[in-house]
C-alpha cells in the first residue's frame, strides 16, 4: 500500500515539474509578459493568475498520477507487449484526455480530439517499437548467456 501511494505521489510531483517546465517554456516562447500556466482562455477563467497557476498545478499533479499509476501495466509480465501498450494507451486516453481539456490544452471539439487521438496513437506506436526492440535485445542477451553456459 505504501509503495503504491509513494508511486502516485511521486508521479504527481513529477507531473507538476513537467507541467511547470512546459508552461514556462510556452510562456517564454510566446513572449508573455507574465507566467502563463496554460492557455489565455484557461487563465481568464480565474480571478488571478495565481489561482490559475494553483489550478494548473492540481491538474498537472493528477496527470502525473495518471501516468505513474497506469505504468503498473508494464510490470504485468503475463501480458504481451502489445497488450501492455494497448491497455496503457486506453487508460491514459480515458483518464488524461479530460484533464488535458480541463487544463485548457485544447477545446472539446471533434477535430481537436481527432488530432489529439492521432498524435497519441503515433506516440504509442513509437513506444511499442521501443519496447519490442528492448525485448528482442534482452532475448538475444539471454540466448547468448545460455549458449556460453553450454560450452
From TrEMBL:
One Pfam match: DUF3021
In the UniProt record, does the keyword Transmembrane helix occur?
yes
The portions of this protein that span the membrane are 12-30, 50-74, 86-106, 112-133
Q: Which UniProt keywords apply?
A: Membrane, Transmembrane, Transmembrane helix
Please state what the protein is called: DUF3021 domain-containing protein
Source species, please? Secundilactobacillus similis DSM 23365 = JCM 2765
Amino acid at each position: 500500500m505504501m509503495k503504491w501511494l509513494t508511486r502516485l505521489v511521486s508521479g504527481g510531483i513529477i507531473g507538476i515539474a513537467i507541467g511547470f517546465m512546459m508552461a514556462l517554456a510556452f510562456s517564454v516562447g510566446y513572449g508573455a509578459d507574465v507566467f502563463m500556466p496554460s492557455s489565455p482562455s484557461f487563465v481568464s477563467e480565474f480571478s488571478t493568475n495565481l489561482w490559475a497557476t494553483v489550478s494548473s498545478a492540481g491538474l498537472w499533479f493528477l496527470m502525473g498520477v495518471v501516468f505513474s499509476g497506469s505504468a503498473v501495466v508494464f510490470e504485468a509480465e503475463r501480458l504481451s507487449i502489445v497488450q501492455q501498450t494497448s491497455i496503457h494507451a486506453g487508460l491514459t486516453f480515458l483518464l488524461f484526455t479530460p484533464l488535458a481539456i480541463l487544463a485548457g490544452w485544447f477545446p472539446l471539439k471533434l477535430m481537436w480530439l481527432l488530432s489529439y487521438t492521432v498524435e497519441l496513437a503515433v506516440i504509442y506506436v513509437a513506444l511499442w517499437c521501443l519496447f519490442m526492440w528492448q525485448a528482442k535485445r534482452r532475448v538475444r542477451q539471454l540466448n547468448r548467456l545460455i549458449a556460453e553456459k553450454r560450452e
